[in-house]
Automatic annotation (TrEMBL):
It comes from Streptococcus intermedius B196. It comes from the Bacteria. It holds the Pfam family Hydrolase_3. Its EC number is 3.1.3.23. This is Putative HAD-superfamily hydrolase. Keywords: Hydrolase. It is an enzyme of class 3 (hydrolase). GO terms for molecular function: magnesium ion binding; sugar-phosphatase activity. InterPro entries: Cof, HAD-like_sf, HAD-SF_hydro_IIB, HAD_sf. GO terms for cellular component: cytosol.
Length: 255
């Protein structure tokens, strides 16, 4: 811990706008921020992908919170790790197969499912196995998170149904066509709760449903203006960009 403030940002849509790179304005804001704050990333992606984007954009992290809090690493050392129970993986696979839903399951090294990404650059050096019958292979792996990808018109229906069928798991809507599922009590907020005891002030930046728990555990939170209304309502401030949020924070704290 180098500072008394910890700033934690989501990646896609918040700090990484095109799912590939941090733009120059936000990168300059990051540089200013790290003069007075430790910096962490919290994402639904894996720690492996966090490391990739960190190296690509020349970032220095104090912590990496991956899989919506299912893995937390500090300087490459894993502080916390929670996979889904094998029985829950099996039950989810049975449900996905019955509903004929597109999905990918994340084990930290690969994405495995019946989903294929048309833009491989956005996978951040993460191999994707798109199989006609992925169920047996997924069952054999230690899975941290499922991405379920329904049609946009049915996403809210499936969110409700998944929460009813799997009340012991965490279910988040993250975008119009993606639902994320992790183990119970695993969230970006739970990851932040583990770290915040070391700091006097915690600031969060995000734009999606999986960021709400992080907003709730932070002292100050910034939501991007393109986020849905319920996500905006959970934040302290709603603002246009990461860079604008950093500027506002500096004015707020007289830094």
């Amino acid at each position: 811990m180098a500072h008394k403030i910890l700033c934690v940002t989501d990646l896609d849509g918040t700090f990484v706008k095109n799912s590939v790179d941090v733009n120059s304005v936000d990168w300059q804001a990051y540089q200013k921020l790290t003069r007075y704050s430790d910096f962490a990333i919290a994402t639904g992606r894996s720690v492996k992908e966090i490391n990739y984007i960190t190296q690509r954009n020349q970032l220095h992290l104090s912590y990496a919170i991956g899989f919506n809090g299912a893995m937390i690493a500090e300087n490459g050392n894993v502080l916390f790790s929670q996979t889904l129970a094998s029985a829950d993986v099996q039950a989810l696979l049975d449900y996905l197969k019955k509903e004929k839903l597109v999905f990918d399951a994340l084990d930290g090294e690969e994405r495995i499912g019946n989903f294929d990404h048309e833009d491989k650059r956005r996978l951040w050096n993460m191999p994707i196995l798109c199989l006609e019958n992925p169920y047996d292979l997924v069952r054999q792996r230690q899975i941290y998170k499922f991405n379920i990808r329904p049609e946009a018109a049915k996403t809210s229906v499936y969110v409700k149904e998944l929460k009813e069928h799997f009340p012991h798991l965490e279910v988040y809507q993250s975008g119009s066509t993606r639902i994320e599922v992790t183990a119970k009590d695993v969230s970006k907020g739970s990851g932040l709760q583990l770290l915040k005891k070391h700091y006097q002030l915690v600031v969060a930046f995000g734009d999606s449903g999986n960021d709400i728990s992080m907003f709730e555990k932070s002292d100050i939170s910034y939501c991007m203006t393109h986020a849905s209304a319920n996500v905006q309502a959970a934040a302290t401030y709603v603002i246009d960009s990461f860079a604008d949020a950093v500027k506002h924070l500096e004015q707020l704290l007289s830094l």
